[in-house]
C-alpha cells in the first residue's frame, strides 16, 4: 500500500497549505495559504512568501511563482525544482 516515486509536488503542496506551527520539527515552516484567501494581501506578497519557504526547503527557481485567483479558484505554479 505504499507508493514509491518523486514526492516534490506533494512536498510543495504541503508547504503551501501548512501554516507556521503545524510541524513540531520545523515550527516556522509553512506558507499558510488559507490566511491569504479573502485577505487584502496582494499577489506579490504571496509569491514572495511561497518563494521564501520553498528556498528554505532547498528549492531553486527558474522564474518567480505564478499565482492566479479568479474569485473562485486559486492556481499556484511554484516553478520550483531541487538542484
Question: How would you characterize the overall build of this protein?
Answer:
It is a single chain. The longest helix has 14 residues, at 43-56. The strands form two sheets. The chain has a two-stranded antiparallel ribbon with strand order 1-4. The protein has helices spanning 8-17, 43-56; strands at 60-61, 66-69, 74-77, 80-81. The model has no long low-confidence stretch (mean pLDDT 89). It contains two helices and four strands, in the order ααββββ. Helix content is 29%, strand content 14%. The protein has 83 residues and is of the alpha+beta class. It is globular and about 40 Å long.
Rounded to the nearest angstrom, the distance between the terminal CA atoms is: 30 Å
Largest sheet: 2 strands, antiparallel
Proportion of strand residues = 5-15%
| Spans where pLDDT lies below 50 across 5 or more residues | none
Question: Which structural class is indicated by helix and strand composition?
Answer: alpha+beta
H/E topology pattern: HHEEEE
Mean pLDDT: 89
How much helical structure, as a percent, in the residues?
Answer: 25-40%
Number of strands: 4
Task: Please state the CA-atom Rg, rounded to the nearest Å.
Answer: 13 Å
Biggest sheet, spatial arrangement of strands = 1-4
Q: So what's the overall shape?
A: globular
Tally of helical segments? 2
